[in-house]
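task queued by scheduler; priority normal; single chain, no ligands, no partner chains; default sampling; output format set to structure tokens
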Amino acid sequence: MKGYVVTVYKVIKDENVLKTYAVKAKEAIEKYKGKFLVRGGKKITTEGDESPRTVVIEFPSFTEAETFFNSREYQEAHAILKDTVVRHHQIIEGA
């Protein structure tokens, strides 16, 4: 089954830091065969709290999504964010 990284941002303190992170993270996503399904864009909040950004990335398997997250490449990108964002980040197995 496919694996998904789902990230719902709650707070983005510095868009420039987020952009720097995104460039580095994209390199890791591509290396680990990830594909963006959702990357910001138009939205309507129909329930719950408003979120400034949501990202959904599909990987060939749950294991590959987990490997991506734990990789040196992604962890280097992740470190760029430091205290810049508050987000809910999950790795989820597809149906």
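post-processing summary
- The beta strands are 3-12, 35-39, 53-59, 85-93.
- The mean pLDDT is 96.
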